[in-house]
Amino acid sequence: MTTLGPLVAADETFHHQITDTFATVAQSDRSWTEKVCAMAAPRDGSVQLAFGMGKYPNRGVLDAYAGVSRGVEQWTVRSSRRLFPDVERLATGPIRST
User: Residue range 23-46: average pLDDT?
Assistant: First the structure.
């Protein structure tokens, strides 16, 4: 009987598990990605919200999108950045100082 280990914080983030550094993935395909996508809408379908993020280690890219649609109207925002050297940062666009 195989048992799984306990869930830890990394299980809920963009972290894969292979016998190499986190800067490397086991798949060499350039289209390999870790993605998260979500959508929300009321039951009447009057408006829809979609958003997501993809981390492409083999391309060195992190991208994100958000969109809202209402009837025949749609608004979409897309953003991306180079993944390296800041692999840990799950944000796209310029870094803003406070």
Answer: 87
**Burial of 3 per CB tally in 10 Å (0-12, 13-18, 19+):** exposed
Q: Strands 48-56 and 73-82: what pairing?
A: unpaired
Total Cβ atoms within 10 A of residue 74: 11
Burial class (CB in 10 A: 0-12, 13-18, 19+), 55: buried
Q: What's the burial of 75, exposed, middle or buried (CB within 10 Å: 0-12/13-18/19+)?
A: exposed
Q: If you average pLDDT over every residue of the chain, what do you get?
A: 83
pTM for the full predicted model: 0.69
> Does residue 31 surpass a pLDDT of 60?
yes
**Pair type for strands 73-82 and 61-70:** antiparallel
Give the span between the Cα atoms of 79 and 66, in whole angstroms: 9
